[in-house]
């Protein structure tokens, strides 16, 4: 069996550590490392079998290199923050170790959501004979694999693809974000963008709105067009798709709070001077908001994330919806986390399993949809994220 080094002991890191420990046939030894060792030790205490813990500042490549040399992992699974991606990839290059993450690199001073920095490592990873798997969370991650699965099994061509992400959960707080608030708010306050006939079209933040009737009793929810990073690789890897959009649901209460925070300048990511010290308003805001990791206990309801594809098979027009429903309370009962961390951490573990068992192999930097979706889809059903596929008579009205 193999050795995995998990970097980042937040909401997602906790789920990854729990899930790797439930798959000991693959993950023989596990080390969980983070900026604060105490974050790792708290998680290790909840896990029945032994996992190692360590302190590392992953912004500092030489610290990560030293830890890799000491623990000798077969794979580094990065679930720290997007800011650390490149520094950790450098450490993997220096030590010849495979790499996996769930979010694209972001510079701290710009919210860009672009893969080019990481794709630029392809030749160096190839030459070093190692593999990097990018974006193996839910979205990006499972939504890319859902698209690859739809194409492989049900379509000759996909004409339009809508990724729809619904969190119908309620954490009982006036305002909180389901994952790292800094990353979440940067994403939500950015311009919307979608792909049509080979071009990207911009929309003002959260200006495009539809009501979608979600399945299995979740019912109608307000959803908003956003840019989301998986569209960059999906439009490249599935060039036949003529229109691709991403939608996420938000409640009115969340949006009202967000608007106020934005209007008063609390979501700014440029430094301001306070008491003679530079602070970033959004980072300060993060410090006063509820810790997403603490929401698990109180969150009820379900998430429903999937893809709606419209296209042709054997000359026939087809409308197809593939989704997962995940229950916040069930996740908490299983691994002490809410569904947002769970739906990210489980696919990160599965991606690592695909690599460590050689079911997904390559030298260079890859996105998940470049590999055979079938073994990954099988694992989703086994590891707690079962999926449902349905054929529709026509494209749902809100997505026309
Ligand atoms: P959290 O903020 O809960 O956790 C981040 C963790 O990273 C913390 O434990 C923190 O350390 C650690 N960390 C931060 N900086 C460093 C550093 N310099 N060196 C080492 N460790 C560091 O975030 P989440 O768990 O919610 O998210 C983790 C990742 O998953 C993010 O990149 C996020 O964008 C991504 N994500 C992806 C999704 C998808 O579907 N693809 C969905 C949700 C999230 P400490 O506690 O020790 O201070």
From TrEMBL:
Pfam families found in the cross-reference section: Sacchrp_dh_C (PF16653), Sacchrp_dh_NADP (PF03435)
Organism superkingdom: Bacteria
Domain Saccharopine dehydrogenase NADP binding: 4-133
Matches recorded under InterPro entries: NAD(P)-bd_dom_sf, Sacchrp_dh-like_C, Sacchrp_dh_NADP-bd
Location of the Saccharopine dehydrogenase-like C-terminal domain: 137-384
Record's protein name: Saccharopine dehydrogenase family protein
Lineage: Bacteria, Pseudomonadati, Verrucomicrobiota, Opitutia, Puniceicoccales
